[in-house]
Amino acid sequence: MADDLFNSFMNGPDENGRFGQFGGRFVSETLMPLILDLQAEYEKAKEDPSFWAEMNDLWKHYVGRPSPLYFAPRLTEHLGGAKIYMKRDELNHTGAHKINNVLGQILLARRMGKTRIIAETGAGQHGVATATVCAKFGLKCVVYMGAHDVERQAPNVFRMKLLGAEVHAVTSGRGTLKDAMNDALRDWVTNVRDTFYCIGTVAGPHPYPAMVRDFQSIIGKEVRWQLPEQEGEGRLPDTVIAAIGGGSNAMGLFYPFLDDPSVRIIGVEAGGKGVNEKMEHCASLTGGRPGVLHGNKTYLLQDEDGQILEGFSISAGLDYPGIGPEHAWLHDTGRAEYVAITDSEALEAFQLCCRTEGIIPALEPSHALAHVMKIAPTLPKDHIIVMNMCGRGDKDIFAVARHLGVELNG
Amino acid sequence: MTRIDAKFAALKAQGRKAFVSYLMAGDPDIATSAAVMAKLPAAGVDIIELGMPFTDPMADGPTIQLAGQRALAGGQTLQKTLDMVAAFRKTDDTTPIVLMGYYNPIFSRGVDRFVADAKAAGIDGLIVVDLPPEEDAELCIPAQAAGLNFIRLATPTTDAKRLPKVLQNTSGFVYYVSITGITGAAAAQATDVGPEVARIKASTDLPVIVGFGITTPEAARTIAGVADGCVVGSAIVKRIADGATPDEVASFVASLAEGAHSA
Q: Distances from the Cα of B121 to the Cαs of B34, B78, B89, B98, in angstroms?
């Protein structure tokens, strides 16, 4: 635990992009000069007050930040234990936390004179956020999405096209998020001069994990001043909880609390049909082991020969066989705990949230809520939990209806 | 001196360019790829690059992606690839073999164990696409300490400032990637490649071999003509995908080798 200034959990990554053994820059030589350029540009922007002034202006007037920190009274009463707060990032423009990061990267791309933006997307939330900001700034936008996901997430595909983006259905591999990321990297290797790769989570080669975390940290920073407004000066949450696919909303909530030893930090992975030897889940930390993929060393779902496995989850946004390297490090150091929630537990939480709080959550934060349902009843009434409501559920109603055996006519 | 160093010394003495051919281990099955591999030296191949299949080959185009998928579907593993090399070595102790692929299967096996096993199997060098010089501590340093060559890719984005870093821990030869892109995509142009190879050769005594985007005997000749040799991959792999017999593949490879050797 961090007990002095020189032993902080907030100093990572080191100059090689490592969080302990995790992270790094595992990319082909063609891309190395590009990520070094990006790192230099980001280091400059980070210290430039005009960069943050522009970010803050856009966060306020375009995204709608700060997002509310909402005390959930009926859910709290229903569970009968800890006080539950929701950080309402689902109220952001485009309906999720993804845009916090996209704005930062697009401003950087503009500073670097890049005119073409590429992105990967799973459920489509990051793709929609990227297409949105590109439309706002008049930049060409190309989104790579697994063919399987294009089929599952038709409304988001249409949204991206309305916003002027070109959507490529990726058929390589098995046509999911990891294959979309492979094809985005292949595009970047091919279009090195004019193209900026806007990664949607805290993964990829250094500096992406740190940069995306820094942009998403606005979530936790707001909680730090919002909670005292309602609970009294200096009050910190006792527990912070967020869902994890790649882990960007979770890093955004967790990071500002890493050096507060009283704050318990819990990341919730997608347990799919259950974390077992059949590997029908996406719980990289709970059921994977360290490896190297997509530019970083981290925990991965893989077979005994180091071949990457497909994940399985009801939530397309959590359907990724890896996890951001900083989470891998927080896991190994013990600073954060990581648990897995199954599809059926997430579906139950989804419905409870709809009925008790009038909020239709996305399936991703429904995983976090499901863990809140497990622990809140065991905790005292003065214990404060802050969970990240990182996305809204409009995109998921078709999938949920299917699982509940309800037929919707489109 | 590795088999690679010996091969280049011999080629230099003969005033010949090197022809390097790529083959995916286990594509479409072990027996076929072993049969093709066995025929390569007689077809004029100077160095064999043997692909290790990986589920997520980020620098490869569709041809090699599919080859890797076929190999994995056929049950190929890193152990089987090493066994294939060991079997090849029973009848050929001179043709250099370079393993090419991605880091995770190696990391998963354990670097020390992999390096020892690769050396024992008769492998001479490694090309690991996702290990730039920034990650040399992972595999490059231990592999070179064990006597394996670590062959680095230099690319059109490797500028003058960066080139020394790329060359620093490279041995065997330098693999110049002719295009910004993936394997099997755009065609390499000798007019673009020539000055780049000259730029690299001004900074190193290592041979510079050019790969990516070379598909015909004529292209092999013109590209080898502006370098120390060339690599052909996707065009050969495509023949295998189309169902060519090992003899038919070997005769296509022979035409490419003749192209390169006539430069």
A: 15, 12, 8, 12
Number of domains making up chain B: 1
CB pairs under 8 A between A and B: 118
> Mean pLDDT over all residues of chain A?
95
Closest CA to A342 of A275, A288, A390: A275
Task: Check if the beta carbon of residue A190 is closer than 8 Å to that of residue B180.
Answer: yes
The whole domain housing B113 covers 3-261
pLDDT tier at A1 (50, 70, 90 boundaries)? very low
Give the pLDDT confidence score for residue B222 in this predicted structure: 97
User: Is A185's CB within 8 Å of B55's CB?
Assistant: no
Mean pLDDT score, A256-280: 91
Token pair 């070094």 in the structure block, residue:
A36
Chain B residue with minimum CA distance to A171? B62
Tell me the per-residue pLDDT of B34-81, one tens digit each, with 9 for 90 and over. 999 999 999 999 999 999 999 999 999 999 999 999 999 999 999 999
Q: Measuring CA to CA, which residue among A220, A201, A223, A204 is closest to residue A212?
A: A201
Known active-site residue B60: yes
What CATH number is associated with residue B190?
3.20.20.70
Q: Spot the catalytic one: B49, B117, B124, B196.
A: B49
User: Which residue of the set B46, B60, B124, B136 is catalytic?
Assistant: B60
Residue B110 confidence (pLDDT): 98
**Does the model's ipTM exceed the 0.85 cut?**
yes
* CB-nearest partner of B103 from A26, A32, A189: A26
Q: Report d(CA B107, CA A302) in Å as an integer.
A: 12
Q: What does the pLDDT read at residue A2? A: 47
Residue type, A44: K
Q: With a cut of 60, say whether residue A332 has pLDDT above it.
A: yes
Question: A14 to chain B, minimum CA–CA distance in Å?
Answer: 13
Which residues in chain A have their CB less than 8 angstroms from residue B54's CB? Answer: 306-307
Give the DSSP H/E element, type plus range, for residue B176: strand B174-177
Q: A293 vs B56: CB contact, 8 Å cut-off?
A: yes
Enter the pTM of the model: 0.96
What single-letter amino acid sits at B142? Answer: P
pLDDT digits (tens, 9 = 90+) for A13-26: 999 999 999 999 99
Are A288 and A321 within 8 A, CB to CB? yes
* CA atoms A377, A381, A386, A388: torsion sign: positive
Best interface-test mutation with A: which of B108, B152, B196 has the largest number of A CBs within 10 A?
Answer: B108
Q: Which residues of B touch A28 (CB under 8 A)?
A: 58-59, 129-130, 132, 153, 155
For chain A, percent of residues with pLDDT exceeding 70: 98
DSSP letters along B196-250, please?
A: HHHHHHTT-SS-EEEESS--SHHHHHHHHHTSSEEEE-HHHHHHHHTT--HHHHH
**Core vs surface per residue A354-369: b (16+ CB within 10 A) or e:** eebbebbbbbbbbbbb
Q: Do A173 and B177 touch (CB under 8 A)?
A: no
